[in-house]
């Protein structure tokens, strides 16, 4: 284990988005000058049985034999996955080296991705991860099963990848006046990542006379003051996820920066989470802040 | 938070859980009936208990995939209560058992399991297997040859049926044993005992009942001596089984939640006319083997059991006891740790004595709690004895021969105090004695008293005594945990040894 903190961490699983995840992670690492770590986790799913035997009897030392059987099955399966994971990591490592990262770290861990990320949280500067993993690979309308719990449990910026890599030129901050949105503005203003890019700050409200718009003007000034960023401010009226997606297509936005899950779970459960809607509908990477 | 369970504990393994739960339900029926007979109550008391305990632990238990129901270990403890005072007092005792177990859960007594060593656990399961087997003997004495033939045939089916091609691995062989033996008995009109002869079977769903006992101190005096060992044995077997399931599935469980869960399950059983129960080693192994991992398996086992017995009660009453005996002998064979017999040769004598003593005490007293108590006591004594070997005293005179320095190294406590005393030569005429305690640990007051005695004895012989490193040596006496739990404190106390 390396003791590096401030890592750009790329979570990869060998699915179709893995290459894009590597590219974006390499892009960030190069621009902010941070070390890059590639993480692959082997999830064992102990809650499911590998083998069912319906004979229903127990005999001499059944307990011991059963334990030995299960251990052997687990061993074979783990070994295979370990090998696969190593290959995935090797391929990814080559890719990021080509992209200009001198010494990427690789890390392979057992257990669920969420657990591993929580353990590594203190070392993370930013997490780069695909919007869906192997399980939902061929279902473009689904988001990964664990994505929400990852976003909810980590308190670091997360870049969610859902398309092939394209060097971002135009980014959009989805501004709603929340604390997380202000945090997003601060991050864009202060990070070297966004220097030289065009930043659209977009606020969508249900009616046009709104406090959010006033907050947005303060945020816009902050961005302009930071320098090195071309700022375009836009106030829109309508349904947020729809307006944002339209704006994104209309203005060739390459990446959306926004606060995530700032409402309570109860509200999200009743009305549906805005973040989840954006994750499902957006065709460009989302930079999420909590 | 007691009722909160992760979604994957319920729905992570639906197919496996439903199949395994069904297999377990089929195996639970003969067990519940057999254990009711051991306890001396109607089979319905055990069947209602098994339903209730399985369903409640599915929700509130701490170990997903573990099967709890009416058990032999518990049944053996209630025999005299049922005989002397009747069923209602058993139900009251069951309620009280549940209350005690919930209190134990909140006091986090589950962590006391760490005092129960491996050999005591082995002794426990072996004794349990022997008791289950012995409980079958009344069904096998003074009976016609038919019963022997059917029991042997039943065992044959149980162990050989799975080798049949195609169907062998898809139908639980204990079920095949029971149905074919029942068919044989009915076809030839054999005059042998059946489940129907053993008492009433459930014909309705269980109903809520408050035990009909006077709520007096007198009642408490009757049931408390039964409830306490019931609670202890229930928790012991449940926590041991939880550990076994933990090992098999490579996962962890919440032991204190399990204690509380067992308590709630027993209260539920008591209120629905069932006897006290706990986790079952054999059934839990069958569940894991059949692919059960989640809470759903336990729920399916309990509910399916009830549906079967309520709707098939006429058929169940026709099951010959010989078929049940065969299933119970299977459970007994499967529970016994045969490997522990082979291990007797390799394991140290003290370990073997602990294991065998546990077995003997249980088989003699029919009380697993007593056996575990004796086992833990013996194991602790052996351990204390082993540690006392790690103490010695070396000495050297100075050049003049007038001063002798003793260096005490190792563990001084009640068990090594005599050895400590004997290490000093009081007959030697010296002017001064130096006792260097830097590398010694004094664990208790006995060891300090022993040191005092040594000092006084030297003074009486006219020698001057100097103690070095007393503070370091007695640092271990501090009886507060917390200080000792920190690595740097342990390093300070044990450092350099």
Brief summary:
Helices cover 42% and strands 21% of the residues of chain A. With 290 residues, chain A is α/β, with parallel strands linked by helices.
Characterization of the model:
The complex is a heterodimer of chains A (290) and B (497). The longest helix of chain A is centred in the N-terminal third of the chain and has 37 residues, at 62-98. Chain A is built from nine helices and ten strands. Chain A has helices spanning 18-32, 62-98, 113-120, 147-153, 179-190, 211-226, 240-250, 265-271, 274-281, and strands spanning 7-11, 36-42, 105-110, 124-130, 158-161, 170-175, 198-205, 230-237, 255-259, 286-289. In chain A, strand 7, helix 6 (211-226) and strand 8 (230-237) form a beta-alpha-beta unit. Chain A has 290 residues and is an alpha/beta fold. The model of chain A has no long low-confidence stretch (mean pLDDT 87). In chain A, helix 1 (18-32) packs across helix 2 and helix 5 (179-190) packs parallel to helix 6 (211-226). With 497 residues, chain B is α/β, with parallel strands linked by helices. Chain B folds into two domains: 7-343, no CATH class; 391-494, STAS domain (Transcription Regulator spoIIAA, 2-Layer Sandwich), CATH 3.30.750. Chain B is 62% helix and 7% strand. Chain B is built from 22 helices and seven strands. Chain B has helices at residues 7-11, 14-39, 43-60, 72-77, 79-85, 87-106, 118-136, 145-160, 173-187, 217-249, 255-271, 281-289, 295-311, 313-316, 321-335, 339-346, 349-365, 368-388, 417-422, 445-460, 470-474, 487-494, and strands spanning 68-70, 277-279, 391-397, 403-412, 432-436, 440-442, 464-468. In chain B, helix 19 links the parallel strand 4 (403-412) and strand 5. The longest helix of chain B is centred in the middle third of the chain and has 33 residues, at 217-249. The model of chain B is unreliable at 480-484 (pLDDT under 50).
């Amino acid at each position: 284990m390396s003791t590096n903190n401030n890592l750009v961490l790329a979570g990869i699983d060998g699915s179709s988005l893995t290459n894009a995840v590597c590219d974006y992670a390499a892009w960030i690492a190069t621009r902010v000058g941070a070390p890059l770590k590639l993480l692959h986790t082997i999830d064992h799913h102990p809650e499911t049985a590998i083998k069912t035997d319906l004979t229903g009897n127990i005999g001499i030392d059944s307990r011991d034999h059963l334990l030995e059987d299960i251990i052997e099955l687990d061993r074979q399966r783990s070994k295979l996955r370990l090998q696969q994971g190593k290959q995935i990591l090797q391929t990814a490592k080559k890719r990021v080296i080509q992209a200009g990262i001198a010494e990427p770290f690789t890390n392979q861990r057992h257990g669920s991705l969420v657990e591993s990320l929580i353990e590594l949280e203190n070392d993370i500067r930013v997490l780069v991860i695909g919007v869906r993993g192997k399980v939902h690979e061929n279902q473009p309308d689904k988001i990964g099963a664990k994505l929400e719990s990852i976003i909810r449990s980590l308190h670091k910026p997360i870049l969610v990848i859902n398309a092939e890599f394209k060097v971002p030129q135009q980014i959009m901050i989805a501004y709603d006046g929340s604390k997380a949105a202000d945090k997003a503005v601060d991050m864009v203003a202060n990070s070297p990542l966004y220097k030289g890019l065009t930043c659209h700050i977009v606020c969508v409200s249900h009616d046009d006379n709104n406090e959010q718009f006033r907050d947005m003007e303060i945020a816009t000034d902050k961005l302009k003051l930071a320098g090195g960023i071309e700022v375009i401010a836009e106030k829109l009226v309508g349904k947020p996820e729809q307006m944002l997606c339209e704006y994104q297509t209309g203005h060739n936005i390459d990446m959306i920066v926004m606060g995530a899950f700032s409402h309570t779970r109860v509200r999200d459960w009743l009305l549906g989470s805005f973040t989840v809607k954006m994750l499902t509908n957006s065709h460009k990477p989302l930079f999420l802040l909590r | 938070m007691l009722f909160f369970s992760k979604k994957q504990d319920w729905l992570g393994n639906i197919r496996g859980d439903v199949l395994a739960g069904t297999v377990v339900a089929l195996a639970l029926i003969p067990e519940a009936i057999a254990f009711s007979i051991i306890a001396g109550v109607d089979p319905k008391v055990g069947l209602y208990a098994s339903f209730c305990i399985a369903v409640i632990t599915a929700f509130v238990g701490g170990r997903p995939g573990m099967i709890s129901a009416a058990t032999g270990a518990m049944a053996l403890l209630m025999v005299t209560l049922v005989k002397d005072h009747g069923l209602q007092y058993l139900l009251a005792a069951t309620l009280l058992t549940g209350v005690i177990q919930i209190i134990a859960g909140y006091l986090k007594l589950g962590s006391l399991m760490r005092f129960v060593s491996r050999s005591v656990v082995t002794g426990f399961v072996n004794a349990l297997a022997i008791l289950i087997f012995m409980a079958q003997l009344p069904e096998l004495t003074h009976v016609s040859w038919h019963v022997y033939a059917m029991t042997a045939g039943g065992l044959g089916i149980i162990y050989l049926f799975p080798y049949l091609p195609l169907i062998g691995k898809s139908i639980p062989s204990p079920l095949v044993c029971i149905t074919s033996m029942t068919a044989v008995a009915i076809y030839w009109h054999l005059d042998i005992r059946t489940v129907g002869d053993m008492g009433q079977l459930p014909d309705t769903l269980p109903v809520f009942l408050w035990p009909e006992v006077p709520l007096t101190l007198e009642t408490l005096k009757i049931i408390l001596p039964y409830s306490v060992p019931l609670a202890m044995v229930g928790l012991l077997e449940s926590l041991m089984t939880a550990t076994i399931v933990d090992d098999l599935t490579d996962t962890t469980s919440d032991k204190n939640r399990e204690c509380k869960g067992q308590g709630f399950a027993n209260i539920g059983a008591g209120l629905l006319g069932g006897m006290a129960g706990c986790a079952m080693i054999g059934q839990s192994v069958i569940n894991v083997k059949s692919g059960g991992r989640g809470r759903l398996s336990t729920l399916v086992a309990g509910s399916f059991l009830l549906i079967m017995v309520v709707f098939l009660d006429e058929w169940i009453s026709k099951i010959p006891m010989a078929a049940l005996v065969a299933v119970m002998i299977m459970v007994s064979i499967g529970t016994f740790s045969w490997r522990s017999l082979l291990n007797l040769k390799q394991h140290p004598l003290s370990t073997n004595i602990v294991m065998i003593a546990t077995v003997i005490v249980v088989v003699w007293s029919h009380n697993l709690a007593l056996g575990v108590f004796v086992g833990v006591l013996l194991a602790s004594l052996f351990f204390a004895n082993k540690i006392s070997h790690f103490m010695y005293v070396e000495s050297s005179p100075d050049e003049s021969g007038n001063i002798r320095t003793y260096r005490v190294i190792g563990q001084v406590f009640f068990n090594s105090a005599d050895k400590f005393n004997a290490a000093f030569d009081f007959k030697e005429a010296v002017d001064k004695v130096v006792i260097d305690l830097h590398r010694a640990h004094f664990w208790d007051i006995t060891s300090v008293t022993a040191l005092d005695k040594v000092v006084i004895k030297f003074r009486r012989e006219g020698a001057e005594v100097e103690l070095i490193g007393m503070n370091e040596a007695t640092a271990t006496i501090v009886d507060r945990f917390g200080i000792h739990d920190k690595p740097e404190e342990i390093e300070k106390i044990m450092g350099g040894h």
